[in-house]
Description:
Blueprint: H1 3-6, H2 20-29, H3 31-51, H4 54-64, E1 74-78, E2 96-100, H5 107-110, E3 116-118, H6 122-127, H7 129-133, E4 139-142, H8 146-149, E5 155-158, H9 180-191, E6 195-199, E7 214-216, E8 235-237, H10 241-257, E9 261-264, H11 279-282
Helix pairs in contact: 2-3, 3-4, 9-10
Domain 6-hydroxymethylpterin diphosphokinase MptE-like: 61-206
Pfam families: MptE-like (PF01973)
Protein name: 6-hydroxymethylpterin diphosphokinase MptE-like domain-containing protein
Amino acid sequence: xxxxxxxxxxxxxxxxxxxWKRRAATALLGENAARTVAARLTDLRAVRExxxxxxxxxxxxxxxxxKNSHAGERCVIIGNGPSLKxxxxxxxxxxxxxxxxxxxxxxxxLGFETTFHVVVNQLVVExxxxxxxxxxxxxxxxxxxxxxxxxxxxxxxxxxxxxxRFSRDASHGIxxxxxxxxxxxxxxxxxxxxxxVLIGVDHRFAVTGPAHQVVESAGPDASHFDPxxxxxxxxxxxxxxxTSELAYHLARKNFESNGRKIVDATVDGALTVFPKxxxxxxxxx
Length: 285
């Protein structure tokens, strides 16, 4: 049996698709109006979270220190696809990097820890909280993660906003866009990076099924760079590639409208939203 075949769905969806409130609002108002209402409500909640408590104000101040802190510079967002094993990672030496989710499993091979770290999926945070507490770099996550990471150092909690949208102000909040990679793009924009290089963003998975369905791995992980990434017994959610593509288009539009760019140096990646380049060309002088 192949590794992919061993990735069986053995935990059913656990209420992480449309909630009854959103379904009711959509039925009553229509999809567009319901999205507008949801966006306004999350904006109000973000303002409340960031201003009414000392912890909220301190957290927002922490995030704001990163605004334009890397204006005009280049960064690399490192995805977690199997293509990383075919990528010349030595080229990343000296680059500013964003690591995502469990990229720390590759730190020994990389020979360095990423400059920034981003994780937003609550199943990943819950099951790997001790690992994230050991991350030395500034860690960006979302406000629900306080339940697992409260008290950890160098953690910034981002407000979750309803979308679709591209947030240019991370201190207010972000739209997740169904992928942590998109959150990293919004953070890169906020920090002022003029060029973002993607690697390991394969945009394909060995397991298929309904978007956001919760599954429990029954064998080695064939969808990421390490078979133990979401190894046996790990609960995770199936990808929503359609929503993530919508998000990526928003990212490209916002970067390019501001004279910036995102390029894709993933080896044999399936994503077609961004211009394709070879990594050695993208990181050349």
